[in-house]
Amino acid sequence: MKNIIFLGAPGSGKGTHTNMLVNQFGYITISTGDLLRNITAGNTELGQKIKNIMVSGELVSDEIMLELIEKELESIEGKPFILDGFPRNLAQAEALSTLLGKKNIDYQAIYLDVLENTCKERIVGRLVCKCGKPYNLFTPDLRPKKDGICDVCGSALIKRDDDNEESFKKRYEVFIKNTEPIKVYYEELGKLKIIDANQTETRTRNDIHEEIIGVIND
Ligand code: AMP
To answer: Does ligand 1 lie within 6 Å of residue 126's CB atom?
Structure first.
């Protein structure tokens, strides 16, 4: 099974497709956003600093991110993984190549291409659960059966502090600015596949999922 690096705007479906692949193939998820939220949950000075950066929609420093990702890659001991939310800029992409190269780990970068307005709608309506199951109040088949409660584990669903229109605007701007160089970088390495991840009447989430599977089985 190929290791996957998911690239895409906030709301492009990285988390949803990661969740589907984890359920089907048992991948390990490395979500840098989740790792950071674990840090912000503790009441420390560093946690508060990171929380402020996240709500503002800016990026946390490369130094902190690289330390986190290195530790995480160490802990999964060679098992197949999906990177969700890393790299977020060219410096991170280059540092990741060095890390993976040292360990002889191969990967496929997959860019989920979704229209900005769709991303915004998904982010504003999103609720998350600590078990990883994604929900969306504006998408009929992603609404929880019971208001505010996870269908899978019964925990209370959470609205992220940065899932509002204002934070989205900044996050999207930061994403556009930093992602083009990453795309060029992986393209030149021959490691990039772009997938149209817009859902339409004739293109369902499952169709997109199947296309992703096609790429990782290639
Ligand atoms: P996410 O859960 O991936 O949407 O990330 C939420 C926020 O965490 C981002 O808006 C950033 O502030 C921060 N973050 C997550 N991953 C990274 C990263 N690789 N580099 C810098 N900041 C990150």
So the answer is: no
